[in-house]
Structure formats: structure tokens, C-alpha cells
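Q: How would the C-alpha cells look for this protein?
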Amino acid sequence: MNEQTFMHYTTYLFDFDYTLADSSRGIVLCFRHVLERNGYADVTDDAIRRTIGKTLEESFSILTGETDPARLADFKQQYRKEADVHMTPNTRLFPETLDVLRRLKGRGAKVGIISTKYRFRIHDTMDQHLPEDFLDIVVGGEDVTRAKPDPEGLLHAITELGVEKTDVLYIGDSTVDAETALAAGVDFAGVTHGVTTADELACYPHCRIMASLEELLEDDPPAKPRPRRRIAIRQILLLLFLGWLSWAESFPLDEESTFIFFTLFLLYLWKVARRRRILPTVAEDWLKERLHPLIVRCRAFHIRQIRGKVPAPLNTHSCTCRNCGHTFTGNFCPRCGQSRGIYRFQLKHAPGNLLRSLFRVDGKFGHTLLALLYRPGHMMRGFMQGRRAAYSMPLQTLFLLVAFYLLAVQLVIPKLQEEKPKLTDASDTIRVENIRASIAELQAERAQGVDDSLMATVTDAVILTLKQDLAEALPADSLRPNEKLKPDEKTAYALGKGIGGQIDSFISQVPFLNRVWELLKRWSHGNRTLHVVAILPFFAIGTYWSFQSRWQVRRHPQRVRFNLMEHFFIQAYIAGQIMLLSILLLPFGWADSDSEVFALPWSVIFLLFWWDLRQLYLCSWWTSLWRTLLMFAYALLFLVLLAGAAYGLYLVAAVLL
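A: Here is the predicted structure in C-alpha cell form.
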């Protein structure tokens, strides 16, 4: 058949293995484990690769010579157990796959996958890179009764999509795919990613035999050139920013250095070098081969982050409930809800029961804590979209974690305070000397004259505050002449301190309001839970404005979106995550227990927001970085506006009354 263009097709259906992705390493590994376990150690890797695309029963029959259905079914079951561990982490998409799929969708075409692989394994790989609703259809081995080359799966997809056969192009890598397209009566295009040669594919009717999927796009208008080897300006800026933070954090070495930003700098440098193909191909291949075990484990962890807790498989055996006597199939009794996995208490169950009693609230609190540690954004997105069975509610989680934190402070801080008096005198002396040096430096600058009146006002305010701090730390006779507060400075300090004082004075004129106000002040003083909950609306509004502005919605209409109330609950989860890390870091002295709100440094809190919001909105690290900065700016702006409005109302009320 003569080669022709692909522009007139409206539906593109792909095989998966060796067409969109290379899963040969995982397939060979799973086959190898099963074959060696059953005494077939002489089968070569090439022989295994030649069977890719066939059903598991056919593959095992070819490789072992077995024809007994029971024996082949046992091989298949063993293979599935191995694949649950090794398959998805060892599967990688071909370099051009994502670009081709996106550009085909950009044409307005429908895109689907027809494979003998199980559908959930295909989703495990594709959902890491594409939105859940990107593919119009996925037909796996569990969706059909007859495998390829029978056209059942292909015809099922055509029927479900409601398209004509003349508008469909099926793309595959093997003669089995060519036979499937021929049997279904649709056009076929071969791709030589796999072990099947172009000559073998050419024996069947085809539109074209391609060396790469990019040939599907040859008829598209030329895309804007995007140089792959040039480092983008934003990447250079981010590398310089992380490098500066690394230097500021790590030097001098005689101080306490955490090397957090230095680690981030190295990781991002490696990512840029890999994405932009700066390394020579030989060096990159050598590194991939040597680091393959680590790469596989990172992929497995990434998949675990996205998938989270997977429900237990449904038990199809009948069971009699020990609580109500009802006979049922499944994991839980439909009459009373009790689990089928009820056992008699024994000594070996004591540790597990103790841990569940301490850390399990409604069977969900422990899962929520784990998710907040390694997949917070994915967990929050799933929770807001309805996947809530395995996790506790946001405010419930936050309140419990604040209570645990206060308990941890009572247990840990007294131990630290026993050692604190030994250092008090030295630390107070250092603090006083630092304040004196700051006052002298600022007064010298002020004496030289400051051209900017605003800067002069700010400098005077800072000097005034430092003098007051020094007056509180030292007796009056120990103060130097330039460190004492003059009468007019005392008045200015009282007035500057005094919006709260003015409010107290105004409210004290009304006895009832005064009693309520004093009660609220006593209740809020030191109430960490109230302080945390009070700032959540500001972060919620900031996140909503920075990630879901009208411009963003118009530009990316398919992105994840949440309403303002959902953002409030998201912020509750993030606050709970911060409290959880504070509990874990408190014994090491890395958390500030005297803080009124969060015990972690704001730099660490910013990193947590950056990471969480990237997972939540499925955006790039760069997009998450600058939008998180924008979120903090919006939150601060809203806080300032609210404080200004409250003070304006106070002034109006004072004038009227």
C-alpha cells in the first residue's frame, strides 16, 4: 500500500508496549523470576522480548513448551505478583510519546490505547505525565474475552468512541497489531520501536512503516523551534538563587549548617543537565545503567506518591459474620459493617493494638499522618475530589496535631530548660552587646544625615524600639546616656505601641464590651490553635488568587480547580503537616516552641508550601515557586488591608462616639 498522510484521521488508537513505552526491562525481569523459579533458567532475554504483545498464556507456552491450561494459569498468576512489584517502575515512555499525544489532541483528534496489558498498569504509567481525562479510551486485557489479533478490543473502542472505521488509524509495533487492524478493517501504521523489523511489518497492509512516532506529525504546520540544549533563563536564575542560598546556609563551616539548600541545588542541577541533554549521550547512558536500581526505586516511590493507599482486593469467598451471623462475600458485612478479618486476641497482637489505640482515630489518622509526610499535595487533591475513605477530616487532623504538639512541648522543653540557666548569663550579655552595637551604628548613620525622610523615620523608630528593649534588659543606672529614653521618646513609644492600648481604652468605656473583650484576650493569649486557624483564611485567599486567577483559568481551563472553602481545608492540612514536622523536630531543638503560631522557620514553611502546592496543582517546580511567592504576597496584602479597615472602623467609631 502506498504511504499517505495522516491528516484526515480523527481517531488514533495505539498499542502500548514497544509503541508508546518501553517496558521490556520490567517484562523480562518478571518473566525471568517466574521461569527461574519453575526450572526454566535457560530461556534467553531475547526470546522473552520476542513474545511481547502476546497474551501471558501464549508467551509462557512459547517459552516453556507447556500446553496444560492449569500450568499456564499458574504461570500467569505468578507473573502478576511479580508485575505488581517490578512492572511500572521499570516502564518508561519513549522520548517523543508525550509530545506526539499532546499535539494529536491539539488537532482535536481522539486518542486511545488498545493493549493486552492490564488497564490499571497502563494508567499507572500514563497518569504520571498526563491528566486523568486526557486519553479518550483505554482498553486492557481485562476488558476483552479474546486477545489480539482478535479485533474485539479495537472494535470495542471504535464503538465506545462512536467513530467510523475510515476515520481510525491503529498504530502498533508487531505483526500481531497489524493482524488486529486487518481483522477490524481499519488502517494500520507500524513503528519499529520493538523487535519486529520493518520488512516483517511491510508484509501486511499499512499506511506507513515509521521509525518514530513523530512521523505522525509530519503534516502538521511546523512548530516553533524549542532548543533542547539551551538552558532557559528561569533555570539559570533558579540555579543562581539556590546557589546563593546554599553558600549563605553552609558557610562558615564552624556554624550549624543544615545543607538543605545545597542538596536542593545539586538535585536541580542534575535535573537541568538531564532534561536539557547537557551530558554526552555516552555519559548519560553509563549513568543510567549504573544508577538503574536507584532510578527504579525513585519511580516506585513516585508512583506510590500519586496512588497513595490502594484499597484491599475484593474477597470473593463467602464468609459468615461473627457479629450478626449474616453470610456475605466481600471484605465487610453489608448488614452490620464489621470486617471479615476478625481474629482472637493473642500476645503477638498487643504491639499493633497499642499503636492503633494511640494513633488511629476512626481508622484514618495514621494514614493521614503518613500521607502528610510523603504525598501531601496528592492526598489533598484526592480528598477534595472525593477520595476520603482512608483519611481523617482536615480540621480534626489539625486540632489533634496541635494537641500532640503541646503535649510534646510539655515533655521535651523542661528537659531542655534544665540546661538553659547555665547559658543564660552569657546569652544575655551577648544580646545586650548586640543591641548596644546596633544602637550605636544607627545613631551614627542618623548623625551623618539621611536624605530620605521616610528612611529617617524608619531609623528613628528602630532606634526607639532598641532602646526600649535595652531598658527592659538592664537596670536604669546601667544605661549609657545615648541609650536612655528621653521623655518625648517615651511618649512616642507609648503612642507607637498603642493601637491596642487605644482600643482597650475605647472599649473600657462600655462595661459589657470591656468584660467580653477581657475574656477574649485571656482566651486568645497563648492559644496556638486559635492563632493557627486565624491565619488559614489569609493563606486560602492567597492560594486561590495566585493559582486560580481568571487569567490562569482562561489559559489552562483543564487544570485542577477548587473553591475557596476547599482551599481553607487544604490550608488546614498544610498547617497540620507543619505541626507534625514540628513534633518530629522538637526533640532535636530544631523547632521554636516559643513561637505564637508555627514552630518551624519561615524558610522551611515556604519550602513545604512550594512542595505541597506543586503536587496539589500538578504544575512544574518553577511555576509552583513563583506562584507560592505570589501567594505569600497576596496573603500579606489581605492581612494589611484587613488591619487597615479595622483601624479605620475604630477611628470612625471613636469620632462618632
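The CA atoms of residues 413 and 593 lie 8 Å apart.

The longest strand covers residues 110-114.

Upvote if useful.
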